[in-house]
Amino acid sequence: MRSATPLGIICGLVFSLIQAQALSQPIGADDPAVLSALREPGAIVLIRHAQTVSGIGDPAHFRLDDCSTQRNLSQEGLAQSARFGRWLVSHGLRPKRVRSSQWCRCLDTATAAFAGAIAVEPWSALNSFFQGHGNRDAQLAAAKAEVARNRGGLEVWVTHQVVISSLTGSSVAMGEFLVVKANTSGQLQVLGRGLVN
């Protein structure tokens, strides 16, 4: 059997990188595959909070009960959240449940998206565990158990990059979402991803 030439190896690597990059890019939320995924029984939208003011993590004096000590949504983030809510309505998608991290930027994303039409339930399992917050293993176990239990209508969970990447292995931009559900073995699987512009 002939061994691959250096040029063949390089071409193969370049193709693999291009393919990997394409798969990691946000897909327009109106993609038929994304809309189909959202209508799957047991589907859950894992959405990262919308655009924030600049920064990483939270200030050193962070307090969960005081939004002024946290990194919060920017005006664009509030508008982005509202667009997400309107987009769901425009496609006849009404979540049966909306859960959110207790961080203000997540609660504000959920509130701006659903404008009081659907109650937002704060849920500690969706809290960030970046910078030593929370209990990573316990939170992920609780979230995975809920994904496995959900067999009914659409749910929306507003959370953080660290939670989404730990649950799915995928990174998402602010305001980007993944559609997930449990497979027949009860394991979480990603059905689609989208970003409402």
Number of helices: 6
Structural class: alpha/beta
CATH topology: Rossmann fold
Work out the number of β strands.
Answer: 6
State the helicity in percent bands.
Answer: 25-40%
- Give the rounded overall mean pLDDT: 87
CATH hierarchy class name: Alpha Beta
What is the end-to-end distance?
50 Å
Main-sheet strand order equals 3-2-4-1-5-6
Radius of gyration: 18 Å
CATH superfamily label: Phosphoglycerate mutase-like
Largest sheet: 6 strands, mixed
How many structurally independent domains? 1
General form: globular
The fraction of residues assigned to DSSP E strands is 15-25%
Series of H and E elements: HHEHEHEHEHEE
Which regions have little confidence, pLDDT < 50, spanning 5+ residues? 1-26
Walk me through what this model shows:
This protein has helices at 6-24, 32-38, 75-90, 104-114, 136-149, 161-168; strands at 44-48, 97-100, 120-122, 155-159, 176-182, 188-195. By secondary structure, the chain is α/β, with parallel strands linked by helices. The chain has one domain (26-195): Phosphoglycerate mutase-like (Rossmann fold, 3-Layer(aba) Sandwich). A 6-stranded mixed beta sheet has the order 3-2-4-1-5-6, with helices on both faces. Helix 3 crosses helix 4 (104-114). The longest helix is centred in the first third of the chain and has 19 residues, at 6-24. The termini are far apart.
